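Lecture notes, unit on binding sites. The following record was shown on slide 14. It pairs a sequence with copper (II) ion.
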Amino acid sequence: MSASAILIKKEALGKQHVVGGSQGWDESTDFNSWVSSQTFKVGDELVFKYTPGLHSVVELGSESSYKSCDISSALNSLNGGSNTVKLNKPGPRYFACGTPGHCGQGMKLKITTVAGDGTASTPSSPSSTTSSTSAAVCINYESFGLFALVATLLVIHMIFNA
Ligand SMILES: [Cu+2]
């Protein structure tokens, strides 16, 4: 019980982006315009919602695989109709549908995750209080994630030793 409460609290720290909005992960959705309406930050999550069996989610490792719909080099493959992908570091990520033909019909997604508050500035000058504050918030989120993991393991350990 306590373990699940901790996990829920941890999830609440990042924003969840339901891919494609109300249309979801489908070949009729305009993913480019959906992406341009979103800001993806480290700690946020992508949620893919689709009809199980009809679609799937494969993560691609490069821009060229994304452009050519080369799903043979997939980093990861998900299915089942509802998948959550954690955005754990800044940079681009590429996804496509694994069903033959769907990627070519536009069922693919490129997103870029930004650090913290979205300014993604280099920490060269500590004079700006705004950027140092947001950096501290980021570090807190990271350490809270670790804390939650350790606490969860501790609770499990206590249950099994009770
Ligand atoms: Cu599909």
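Take-home: Strands lie at 16-18, 40-41, 45-49, 57-60, 76-78, 82-86, 91-96, 108-114.
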